[in-house]
Amino acid sequence: MLIIRLQRVGKKNQPSYRIILAEKTYPVQGKFIEILGNYNPRLKTKVFKKERLLYWISKGAQKSPTVHNLLVSEKIIEGPKVKAWTPKKKKKIEGEVAPVEAPVSTPAAEKQSVEKTEAPAKEVKEEKTEAVAETTKEEKAVDTE
Are 21 and 4 in contact (CB under 8 A)? Predict the structure, then answer.
């Protein structure tokens, strides 16, 4: 099956594309049958060999979504544009739990929470010291008898 697609040519950070006709199974940067035009997104230049494009489309060559949209914008073919790009979905690993976001806290809220946690600890210490004092008084009373 033949496909009309873009082949990147150009320097790093300076993309420029050829519009080529190639076998669908061939690598993008690999062997191609014919160059049908070029596209430079930086300079916004588009050059198409309209007759050859229409010939190959009539022979059953498929168009990539991006090439289809370029041809529609240049009015070489008619029809609506298609969605050419979708963002990748984040993969979820099985057994992994999504992180829970902690609520945003202010310094005043942190002080209050610290005071709340410290207060019961002091009460427990006081209760223990009272209990220890009572047991020592009872032991002394037993020893003196």
Answer: yes
